[in-house]
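dumping this here so i dont lose it
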């Protein structure tokens, strides 16, 4: 009954503020075309190519000594962590899902990777630093805090058993045969991502229009960018920015669930890990906040 009432409230809001919703859709589509797709689509293609061509396994051989000792994951699993940190949400989750689907990592390891491999990229962090705090140095600090919190989350969830890949991973594909599928899969992923971006922008705009709510915390918990854009550049806002980046937002979590379809991985434990990463990020940001300007 509660869900039904909530959905009816959303529909009533769409009818009562149809002009606000329509404008939010237009802005959401412009955001996707101007920022989200250019920043994310190439990484989604490349991450799929890494797995399909066997490059994740090859790179994993180089990463394995470090990732096994430090993070407790296999070499291919370390590739998911690396791509997630460079490409941003939800590249890490997509890579972990593809690794599990093709058998490059076990389902158990894929589930654990989800706890810390899905992260903000440096481009987003630098944009937050320059746009909200007027300082690229603040952006660098935010990304370093983000990486550190992800590593700490990995250490806190580390298993005592050695990570093992599955015994029969899929055979690597040639680049020519893997490329069309990678582009097609990335295109489908982008459709999911942009759909959630537009919907959550509409939801937050309706929430603001009908309640007057403008605080970055609740809005950022729903949709990361919308909350970040409402920060004013204070020391407290720096800590809040770090926490919101660690959490990612419900919009990102929905994107994550979408890119995991067909991989056999599930979201159990993921939200708790992202909440822990948000708390760790905030704790790390407190002493650094005095040096961000």
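and the seq i came up w/
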């Amino acid at each position: 009954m509660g869900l039904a009432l909530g959905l009816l409230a959303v529909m009533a809001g769409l009818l009562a503020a149809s002009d606000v919703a329509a404008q939010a859709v237009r802005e959401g589509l412009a955001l996707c075309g101007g920022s989200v797709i250019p920043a994310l689509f190439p990484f989604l293609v490349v991450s799929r190519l890494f797995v399909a061509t066997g490059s994740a396994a090859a790179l994993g051989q180089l990463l394995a000594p470090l990732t096994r000792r430090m993070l407790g994951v296999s070499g291919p699993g370390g590739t998911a962590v690396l791509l997630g940190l460079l490409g941003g949400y939800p590249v890490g989750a997509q890579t972990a899902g593809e690794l599990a689907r093709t058998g490059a990592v076990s389902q158990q390891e894929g589930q654990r990777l989800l706890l810390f491999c899905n992260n903000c990229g440096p481009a987003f962090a630098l944009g937050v630093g320059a746009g909200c705090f007027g300082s690229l140095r603040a952006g660098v600090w935010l990304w370093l805090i983000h990486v550190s919190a992800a590593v700490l989350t990995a250490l806190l969830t580390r298993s005592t058993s050695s990570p093992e890949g599955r015994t029969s991973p899929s055979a690597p594909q040639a680049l020519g045969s893997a490329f069309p599928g990678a582009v097609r899969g990335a295109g489908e992923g982008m459709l999911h991502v942009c759909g959630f971006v537009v919907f959550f922008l509409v939801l937050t705009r309706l929430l603001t229009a009908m309640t007057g709510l403008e605080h970055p915390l609740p809005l950022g918990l729903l949709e990361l960018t919308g909350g970040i854009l409402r920060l004013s550049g204070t020391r407290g806002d720096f800590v809040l920015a770090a926490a919101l980046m660690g959490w990612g937002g419900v919009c990102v979590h929905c994107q994550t669930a979408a890119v995991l379809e067909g991989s056999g991985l599930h979201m159990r434990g993921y939200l708790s890990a992202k909440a822990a990463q948000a708390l760790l990020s905030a704790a790390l940001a407190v002493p650094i906040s005095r040096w961000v300007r």
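The radius of gyration is 19 Å.
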